[in-house]
Amino acid sequence: MTEQPIFADIARPTATDAVSADPRMTRTIWVLIILMAFCTATSLAMLGIRVDFSSNPPLIATACGYAIVAVYYTVVRREPRLTSVLIATAQLFLVLFIGLLLTYAASAVDLPYRDANLQLADLWLGFNRESYRTFASLPGFGAVLDTAYLSIQPQTALVPLALILAGQLPRLQQFIMAFGLALSATALIAAFVPAMDAMIYLDLAPNGISALPPGTYTHIPTLEALRAGTMTTIRLNNLEGLITFPSFHTASGVMFTWALWRIRYLRIAGLILNSLLIASTPISGSHYLIDVIAGAGVAWTAIVITGRLTANSARNYRVARIN
After folding, report:
1. In 10 A of CB 139, how many CB atoms?
2. Among 28, 65, 95, 241, which has the highest number of CB atoms less than 10 A from its own CB?
3. Ordered DSSP codes for 123-141
4. Bridge-partner residues for 130, per DSSP?
């Protein structure tokens, strides 16, 4: 059996691996979105948390305008390829939006923090945080790592755009599915393994958050308010990343690299950038090493599941054509 490269396609190219989207995968993603929305709405309702949709009018207006355009090109002026792009983009937005709200619900579960356990895992792995910090603070290298860490936001938009321009709509669908699965899994795991972060628990010990310079951003006040039940409204103009374990930055870096692997002229650039993103996570993202390992595991599991779903969809496609 020939071994494939680590980021090779999970399933071999099939009849659906053309420039058009796979309608069966489109439906599967909608099912995932509905399940995510149900879990999120139910969880937030049980926790007594509401979403203030009026807190970000531009976002709501843009979403409504986008929906009108999508309906127009789907029903009135039928443009199948453009419709596929519009639907896939809308699905990605919904996966990200609902998934982010789901992380708020997960963060509100008031189980004991597991920072001590995560630190013990790092020690067992032989990870020396101070040595890594020294390495990451080499002249100029720290700025590179910080930039790579912050690239998660533009990459979330640019990777799908690259797939669209390269005519890789099936790969875009796979990326959306994997992203949704990974984000859902991250929220579920974080609900049972809550943690602050390595900077607060280790770097600033014993004073913790009180040792931060005035004006320094930290997600801890939001996290603590959710856990205490004093934060009952989520404002859409101030959404934050709250999850420590597993690291979704790491999961994203793995999935970005995998998504771009088919685009030959972006393959190496994507690998380098996202390797730096993952390398930056312990320091720039204040994560434990075990967070990084768990994040990579979540991403790889999501990719494998997506590959199985893609293979089943392709198999059904071939059977339908034969019949």
Report:
1. 6
2. 95
3. HHTT--HHHHHHHHTSTTH
4. none
Q: What is the pLDDT of residues 176-221, one digit of tens each?
A: 999 999 999 999 999 999 999 998 888 887 877 877 787 778 899 9
**Peptide bond just before 206 cis, omega within 30 deg:** yes
The CA distance from 196 to 44, in Å, is: 21
What does the alpha-carbon distance between residue 101 and residue 218 come to, in Å, rounded to a whole number? 18
Read off the pTM.
Answer: 0.88
Q: What count of other Cβ atoms lies within 10 Å of the Cβ of residue 194?
A: 23
Q: Which of 240, 242, 222 is nearest to 232 (CA)?
A: 222
List the single range of 14-18, 72-76, 80-84, 281-285 with lowest mean pLDDT.
14-18
Total count of residues recorded for the chain: 323
d(CA 177, CA 243): 20
Element (H, E) at 301: helix 289-322
Which residues make Cβ contacts (< 8 Å) with residue 1, sequence separation at least 6?
Answer: none
Binning pLDDT at 50, 70 and 90, where does residue 224 land?
very high
Structure tokens at 100: 């982010």
Cβ contacts of 86 within 8 Å, gap of 6 or more: 66, 69, 70, 73, 74
Cα 66 to Cα 52: distance, rounded to the nearest angstrom:
20
